[in-house]
What we know:
Elements: H1 2-26, H2 38-58, H3 61-72, H4 77-103, H5 106-114, H6 117-137, H7 144-168
Helix pairs in contact: 1-3, 1-4, 2-4, 5-6, 6-7
Amino acid sequence: TEVTEKLEEAVMIWIKQIRQFLVESEQMRREADDIGPSAELEYWKSRMSSFNSLLDEIKSSRVKKIISILQAARSKTLKQWKELDGNVTVAANEAKDNVRYLYTLDKFFGPLAKASPETMMEHVPSLMNTVCMIYCTSPYYNTSECMTSLLRKITNQMINTCKTYLCEG
């Protein structure tokens, strides 16, 4: 029982750390008003990397051994652990899925940033079709918050491109 208590203490510390990580990951993002859509992809890539690292740690053999010992001891801390493990898995899946969908827009980021307004407008129908596909098929990214943020960033990029074009011309 002494070993079990020590392991439970360790797991409770992990639970507290993971909860803190989840809370921080859900806080509002502070972004500049004029950033483009590539920042959205970068944000989700970074989030995916963070959650994948955390998942790798949770799935490590060391952690698995400790959890199996606590399972054998019928520890009450396992309920909290399993819930958190599930929350981390969902967040990791969300980030991975969002990266996959946002990568379908990646081919438009160059023309949006570097083209003339006329050339840029040639890409808008395909871009909007891709955004519509993301909205219709993504299990996570199809919220009004995500779509509004993405469309705002696309618009920002178009405005910045037009400003640059006007200043150079």
